[in-house]
Amino acid sequence: MSTSAASHLSPAFPARAPWGTAGKLRAWQQGALDEYLDRHPRDFLAVATPGAGKTTFALRIASELLQRHIVQQITIVAPTEHLKKQWAEAAARIGIRIDPNYSGSSGPANREFHGVAVTYAGVGVHPMLHRRRVENRKTLVILDEIHHAGDSKSWGDAVFEAFEPATRRLALTGTPFRSDTNPIPFVSYVEGSDGIRRSAADYTYGYAHALADHVVRPVIFMSYSGEMRWRTKSGDEVAASLGEPMTKDAINQAWRTALDPHGSWMPQVLRAADKRLTEVRKAVPDAGALVIATDHESARAYAKMIREITGTGATIVLSDDVGASKKIEEFSEGDSRWMVAVRMVSEGVDVPRLAVGVFATTISTPLFFAQAVGRFVRVRRRGEVASVFLPSVPTLLQHANEMEKERDHVLDKQKKGEGLYDTEDALLAQANQEKDTPGEQEQFSFEALESEARFDRVLYDGAEFGLQAHTGSEEEEEYLGIPGLLEPDQVQMLLQNRQAKQIARSRKKPDAEADLSEKTAAQRPVVTHRQLSGLRKELNTLVAAWHHRSGQPHGVIHNELRRVCGGPPTAQASAGQLQDRIAKIQQWATSAR
């Protein structure tokens, strides 16, 4: 191997270089490399947004250190088995031989390789094995997504014990912050004026800079609200609109109702996302889409929906599937439309053709959200635009509006009342537990009964566009039909034009045709919240009685009432519409005697 081979790494290695980049290294990669070679530090933390090219940067440093005989071998530590293989394949293309199958039980590492790739979990099991390796030969340790070393105290201790004697340590991450205060090994913390210690990176390249450099794609967030109905453990039926102000418990239950595979919300959103994918593929023929699911059961149900919508199957990737890595690789290299995954494609996995995403999970910490959205920002040519569909949940909308915000890992808890992270306390464990099924803190004793999706708004570059509209409506179609190749400023201009057109159209509608959400307050019937609640309760009581009499499910009865009487779901229906349904079901009961 020579430095010549490494110096000609593509700036998007191992994918194709994007439009307008240099033939060698991107500006940030060259800047970080210059910083590293000027100082030759033992520890170096590089923070770069997902898709910016951290692999290229790390392999360039590895080649320099090997060529100069500063190190004799390399150890790469990655979060998952799949990423070990991905690192080995990337390194092999420039002549660095990495063994991704190394195991301490198989004896010493093969000297034909320049190094090995292992997981954080593997280091946690045998830290002394890795310590002996770095003590015996001068070693560069590349710690990919270093924040995982703080997933637990035992992992952090093991990583420190294993690699403390290393000659050089290069730490990489796209999301340097954690929601907990577990210290990350080999990361420097600097105390601020407020007495709080925060992580200090040696080089930072954030999403905003990468977007300005056309290194990553702009992301359009398509937000969907809708009407939800569920039954609590006490037997009460609750109806609410997703996206409206509610208690935390109500938001969580409405959210889970939306994602329930038996409702209508997910099929409607998947259908909209598939329409968006079709539009994108007009300009990017091999563009793919990904659903990020909460658990295995939901993932399989969503894949079934996709088959019913598109007529073709989706690739399903589950974390306990021994063939998961191969499935991801085949999908990445192919041109099929859809993949459904549980966590396996949430971080680090390189599938550059992913352009459309559906965030169908209740995991909502900033860490997980940033990792998930990072799967869609990897640009291959100038003008590619990413689209991510998500529920209208305040936490997710806030994360979407803060895409360009740079964060550091906060090591010390702030005092109550000063609260940068106080509001996230209930979500901390979710980000750090590598799980596929909801934990105890996610469990709600309720039964999802009914859900309907409604297009809510588009979020882009910290701004919001659009009015609510029914799925399948002309208003929704205009946002789904935005071209798949656009410059960032063109995206904003088109969204502004679409919004102006939608507002103008809604003003011209006769009052009888306007949605309640489009009517002015003066045009809406004056009915108190208590009166509406009473009518809904009366209707639900009658539906329950008819259920016991007819044996029909509650959802079927409500759908039949909507078919006969017209109007939206119960939670959104007007007083007059509710009264019509009450009269109709009373008529059924009278006729059946």
Automatic annotation (TrEMBL):
Residues 509-518 have a biased composition (Basic and acidic residues). This is DEAD/DEAH box helicase. The keyword ATP-binding applies. GO terms for molecular function: helicase activity. SUPFAM superfamilies: P-loop containing nucleoside triphosphate hydrolases. Residues 35-194 form the Helicase ATP-binding domain. Residues 504-525 are annotated as: Disordered. Gene3D superfamilies: P-loop containing nucleotide triphosphate hydrolases. Pfam families: ResIII (PF04851).
